[in-house]
Amino acid sequence: MARATGSGPPACAKCGACSTVCPVYRQTGREYHTGRGKLHLLARLDPANASAAYAEILSHCLLCGACSQVCTRAIPVAERLAAARAELHRRAGKQVLLRALGGKLLGQPRLLRVLAPLARIVKERRLPADSGLNLRLGLNLAPAGPGETAPSTTRESGPDPVAGPATLYLFSGCYANFIEPEIPQAVCSLLAKNGLGRARPATGGGCCGLAAYSSGQAGQARRLARKNIAAHPGSAPIVVACASCASHLRRYGELLADDPDWRQPAADFALRVREFSQYIYQANSQAPAAAAGEQPPLKVLYHDPCHLRFGPLRVGAEPRRLLQRIPGLELTELPRGPQCCGQGGLFHLAHPTSSAAILEQLTSDFRQSGAEVVTTACSGCLLHWQQARADGQHQARVLHLAVLLDRLLPPLEQQP
């Protein structure tokens, strides 16, 4: 099982900076759960011949990117791990990680209780087989039967709130389309009210592919990328409602960099991707914050999705500045700053104990903030915050950022 060293620069300096920011290591204290530890193993052990223990270690990572953020050599640890998982998936058996996490899920009644209602909703809507929501919720749904038509994951959800020709593409993500259609409706409403254009979902698109990519299904991730690129022709901006989708869509150029036919279309597509709150804020970045009202303020905490904190878009200030423009709203922060929620797409299914411990630390800090509402732009984070409320870890309302802004944000004045 030995693996030859010299896989190419940059090489880990073993400084340990990654240990201080890794949510998993903070809970387990095990060196092989750090970025440094995993890179050390990858340099010596081939994932193609992975043992069960090695496969477990490779899957025990949120792929949040925090380690790369502090790495003095800017090593893309998450990308290296995703590539290693692709080797594991291809050569160690079909969906080996998913089979392993499926067994763990059956032993977690609390998770099953939370996921079962979602599974029923998804089945009723005949979720397409290639949707990342199948993976995220731990579902194994059969495709639509003969004569049935499974909807595209970027179909319109309910009546379109905006009339007239589209000037923007809207990419909502699987969760928003099939579980909470109020999210894409809120994004469309926000864009229209602020004079930023009329958005429409593309025809023929699908899941962004992040769940497939993270679980090592690289071929599936590339297929979904090509499908989405083809479904969004032209040069119109692609406004994305989900933080995780936005981060992954922005990486299509890297994902298809070795494909001569799709390399340039993927790079062009990635440059058109806009996370919705950043897009709205940039329309008028000079608008002032709202004045304090006479009534006691509504205390709101914005939860930073890891994909926006550490991903290619780096969105953090813009959602907060939009929230600060809402009259009667007080923006609060966690006492120790932004934290990962521990959901991590498939991570909460594969490693529920670690995931629950990370979430418990977050909600413990959250209770100190005094916030009455928690809002975020990531569907996975939204699910985890909702689960925490259902489990009694907090009592705050949980709203997607687009829904909260659509309800409370006054229309922006456009720049001259």
Provide a descriptive summary of the structure in words:
The chain has 416 residues and is an alpha/beta fold. Among the domains are: 17-93, no CATH class; 285-408, Rossmann fold. Helices cover 46% and strands 7% of the residues. It contains 22 helices and eight strands. The chain has helices spanning 23-28, 35-42, 52-59, 66-70, 77-91, 96-106, 109-124, 132-136, 174-178, 182-193, 210-214, 218-231, 243-249, 252-255, 263-272, 276-282, 306-309, 317-323, 347-350, 352-369, 379-390, 401-408, and strands at 168-171, 199-201, 238-240, 273-275, 298-302, 329-332, 373-376, 397-400. The strands form two sheets. Strands 2-1-3-4 form a four-stranded parallel beta sheet. A four-stranded parallel beta sheet has the order 6-5-7-8, sandwiched between helices. Strand 7 (373-376), helix 21 and strand 8 form a beta-alpha-beta unit. Helix 2 packs across helix 5 (77-91) and helix 16 crosses helix 18. The radius of gyration is 21 Å and the shape is globular. Residues 1-7, 90-109, 122-126 and 133-163 have low confidence and may be disordered.
